[in-house]
């Protein structure tokens, strides 16, 4: 009797804990990507596009997908509207990418995070990007090489596929954190939809609310080098009408905020690599390498300085100088105000340690 | 009658072997003299003893003639001391007590003719012999692997009608006294008409209505029996069954194969790791599939989720019915191939394999992934070396599947915890089923005795 009672209690408890009910995997529609855009109709606030993966009926078939769109005042309503257009239950458990339309990010976008953060089935490790010209168009691109829906959009951001130095990787939770963290501003990769491929080479920096400045390809590369360090990249060096390409094996940067009367940020960039290609026919001697090193450090220094000044000018801080300053100061009440007054005029000092290794054979 | 030295030796030997029921102690009185012989009947050839020891005694006139006669055999020697006599006796010699001397006479009986190879617990590098359906042969097999006077073999008869001879074998000095008395007590309490197999005795000894997991190990390998005796366990051997019971046994014993010891240590560890992996797959995989495919598909990689969804698209029934259907087909196939005569058995597997593997998927009854899962479950189940445990694992996946179907991943976790708790609650003659280390072994008072002897 006692065991029967215990079993009954256990079963009752379990039914409470199960969460979502039994729904077979083939009765679910997996939402792989979500596109959020500025609506065309003024009455509405948002245009939601969902990229639904159609499971391959036979193995080896290429990726099939369907994009459904709805324009409403809230995202929840839009999802409800789309639900009435499909035959299977929408499942956000495999949502891998969230694309914010270029027009949407011109204004305050923070309202979309309410939905994205509160939905428990959206994994917070989904990648988030800015889509050019719009989220819908990015979702609609179908590269011929794709084996799974949105594969070619997800792979560049994960570590699994191509390792490009100009891709900034941002996950949903990181972006959300940065919208509230003082001293660290959000940055998102910008995906440009072409006819049969994506172009991911730029990044956009936000001032917590909206897109403030777009970084060029070179600036994005430099940002990645400063922010996380790069392993496979290249640097173009120009010297006396000769151009050389350096394959960089390791590039990293560290910085110190020097406080005092005239505060400055002292940044050291270390680059190590080999000359991969040059336009002149001269042999790459030890002497030539030294010259290349000198020219290279000059070039890198200039790019870094221009990036830092550009960010300073727009008063955005995706690298997190402000956070560093706050973490190294003791005056908790005033440090943030202090930093805000320091940052617009702070001096940047960049030192580049450019090292070229001798390529070629052992004589 | 006998000189004092000889009488003392005889007493000493009798004392050493007092717990063994197969020790024979006969005296031969002829008109002229008296000799006495002592031997272990299970490992000696009785023909030899009659023909070369007893018969000639009646044919010789004096004791000295008989002594000369014995000395003429190369296998007959005079032992240096009592210990040597005992050692010789344990390897199959007869001790002959004359008036003032004692001889050992080799009458070894190695039963190799009708001992068959093990075919239930197969070992690659180990000994190939298996127990047979004859008690004396089985005791012979054990005695020949355990030459020690500490090995006691006691006989008992169980079954009102079958009158089955069983023997309890253990090492006097290391076996746990409480277990021995417990076993004897339980054996004498058994009230049954027919006793024919080790599995039946297992049920009678554990006496539980709904037990699922074996708590006593059933084995057919003499080498495993000897190893367990040397670890202080009690073994019950049968007259009519080629299997023996090892008491007590813990959960981990059922996952050890004798090959683990015979292989190199690295290989042995890998093999036992494989087995535990197999247990997890065989018990949890069906439940995991249903829980993940029907409740939480986000646990899969997106690629896998889509390909499962794609392959399930034509399946008309929900995943739990699909997996139940396939699992039952697999169980039918296994049962059919075990019970069928060997000549028909291969036909059953061919037909069954064909239907399960190919036709079921093409007909859209089950998905491709399901075939892989069911095959993995079946193969993983075969990895378990002890048959009784393999059957228990085969059954236990169904309750886990049921609870997972009802409650998803939470159910899977809860049912697994429940299984662990259930196992931890089992006892095998007082030993915890999950005992991993020897910490809770009760102190053994007999240990002292063995060091002095």
From TrEMBL, chain A:
Its main location: membrane. It comes from the Bacteria. Keywords: Germination, Lipoprotein, Membrane, Palmitate, Signal. It is found in: Membrane. It holds the Pfam family Spore_GerAC_N. Residues 202-360 form the Spore germination GerAC-like C-terminal domain. Residues 23-192 form the Spore germination protein N-terminal domain. It is a lipid-anchor. InterPro entries: GerAC_N, Spore_GerAC-like, Spore_GerAC-like_C, Spore_GerAC_C_sf. One of its GO terms (biological process) is spore germination. GO terms for cellular component: membrane. Belongs to the GerABKC lipoprotein family. This is Ger(X)C family spore germination protein.
TrEMBL record, chain B:
Keywords: Membrane, Transmembrane, Transmembrane helix. The chain crosses the membrane at residues 234-255, 276-295, 366-388, 400-424. Coiled coil: none annotated. GO terms for cellular component: plasma membrane. It is a multi-pass membrane protein. It is found in: Cell membrane; Membrane. InterPro entries: Spore_Ger, UPF0353/GerABKA_families. One of its GO terms (biological process) is spore germination. Its main location: membrane. The keyword Repressor does not apply. Belongs to the GerABKA family. This is Spore germination protein. It comes from Terrihalobacillus insolitus.
């Amino acid at each position: 009797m006692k065991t029967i009672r215990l079993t009954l209690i256990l079963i009752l408890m379990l039914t409470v804990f199960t969460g979502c009910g039994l729904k077979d995997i083939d009765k679910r529609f997996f939402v792989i990507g979500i596109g959020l855009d500025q609506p065309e109709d003024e009455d509405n606030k948002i245009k939601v596009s969902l990229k639904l993966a159609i499971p391959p009926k036979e193995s080896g078939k290429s990726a099939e997908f369907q994009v459904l769109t709805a324009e409403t005042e809230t995202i929840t309503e839009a999802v409800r509207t789309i639900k009435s257009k499909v035959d299977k239950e929408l499942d956000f458990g495999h949502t891998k990418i969230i694309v914010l339309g270029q027009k949407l990010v011109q204004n305050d976008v923070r309202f979309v995070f309410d939905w994205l953060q509160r939905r428990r089935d959206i994994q917070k490790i989904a990648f988030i990007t800015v889509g050019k010209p719009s989220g819908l168009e990015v979702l609609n691109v179908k590269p011929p090489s794709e084996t799974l829906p949105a594969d070619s959009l997800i792979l560049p951001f994960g570590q699994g596929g191509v390792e490009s130095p100009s891709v900034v990787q941002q996950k949903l939770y990181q972006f959300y954190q940065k919208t509230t963290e003082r001293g660290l501003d959000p940055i998102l990769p910008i995906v440009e939809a072409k006819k049969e491929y994506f172009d991911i080479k730029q990044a956009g920096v936000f001032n917590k609310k909206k897109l403030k400045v777009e970084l060029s390809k070179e600036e994005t590369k430099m940002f990645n080098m400063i922010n996380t360090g790069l392993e496979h990249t290249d640097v173009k060096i120009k010297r006396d009408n000769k151009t050389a390409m350096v394959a960089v094996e390791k590039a990293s940067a560290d910085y110190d905020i020097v406080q005092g009367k005239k505060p400055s940020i002292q940044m050291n960039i270390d680059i190590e690599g080999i000359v991969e290609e040059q336009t002149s026919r001269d042999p790459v001697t030890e002497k030539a390498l030294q010259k290349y090193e000198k020219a290279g450090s000059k070039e890198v220094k200039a790019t870094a300085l221009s990036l830092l000044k550009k960010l300073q000018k727009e008063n955005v801080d995706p690298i997190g100088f402000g956070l560093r300053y706050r973490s190294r100061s003791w005056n908790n009440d005033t440090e943030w105000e202090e930093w805000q007054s320091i940052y617009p005029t702070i001096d940047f000092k960049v030192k580049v340690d450019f090292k070229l290794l001798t390529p070629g054979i052992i004589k | 009658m006998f000189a004092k030295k000889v009488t003392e030796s005889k007493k000493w030997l009798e004392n050493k072997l007092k717990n063994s029921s197969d020790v024979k102690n006969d005296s031969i009185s002829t008109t002229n003299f008296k000799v006495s012989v002592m031997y272990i009947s299970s490992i000696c050839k009785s023909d030899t003893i009659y023909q070369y020891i007893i018969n000639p005694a009646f044919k010789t006139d004096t004791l000295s003639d008989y002594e000369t006669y014995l000395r003429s055999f190369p296998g007959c020697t005079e032992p240096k001391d009592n210990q040597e006599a005992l050692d010789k006796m344990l390897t199959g010699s007869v001790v002959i007590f004359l008036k003032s001397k004692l001889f050992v006479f080799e009458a070894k009986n190695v039963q190799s003719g009708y001992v068959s190879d093990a075919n239930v617990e197969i070992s690659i590098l180990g000994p190939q012999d298996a127990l047979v359906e004859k008690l004396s042969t089985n005791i012979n097999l054990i005695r020949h692997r355990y030459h020690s006077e500490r090995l006691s073999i006691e006989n008992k008869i169980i079954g009102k009608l079958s009158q089955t001879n069983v023997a309890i074998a253990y090492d006097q000095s290391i076996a746990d006294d409480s277990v021995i008395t417990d076993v004897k007590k339980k054996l004498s309490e058994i009230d049954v008409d027919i006793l024919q197999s080790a599995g039946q005795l297992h049920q009678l000894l554990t006496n539980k209505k709904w037990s699922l997991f074996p708590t006593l190990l059933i084995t057919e390998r003499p080498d495993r029996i000897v190893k367990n005796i040397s670890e202080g366990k009690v073994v019950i051997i049968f007259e009519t069954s080629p299997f023996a019971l090892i008491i007590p046994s813990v959960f981990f014993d059922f996952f050890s194969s004798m090959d683990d010891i015979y292989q190199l240590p690295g290989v042995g560890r890998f093999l036992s790791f494989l087995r535990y992996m197999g247990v997890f797959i065989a018990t949890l995989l069906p439940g995991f599939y249903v829980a993940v495919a029907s409740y939480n598909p986000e646990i899969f990689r997106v690629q896998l989720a889509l390909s499962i969804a794609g392959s399930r698209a034509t399946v008309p029934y929900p995943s739990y019915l699909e997996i139940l259907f396939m699992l039952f087909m697999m169980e039918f196939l296994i049962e059919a191939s075990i019970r069928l005569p060997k000549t028909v058995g291969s036909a059953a597997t061919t037909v069954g394999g064909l239907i399960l593997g190919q036709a079921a998927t093409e007909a859209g009854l089950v998905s491709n992934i399901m075939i892989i899962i069911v095959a993995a479950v079946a193969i993983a189940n075969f990895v378990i070396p002890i048959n009784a445990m393999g059957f228990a694992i085969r059954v236990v996946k169904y309750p886990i599947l049921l609870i997972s179907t009802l409650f998803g991943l939470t159910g899977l976790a809860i049912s697994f915890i429940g299984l662990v708790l259930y196992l931890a609650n089992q006892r095998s003659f007082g030993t915890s089923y999950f005992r991993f280390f020897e910490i809770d072994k009760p102190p053994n008072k007999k240990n002292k005795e063995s060091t002095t002897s």
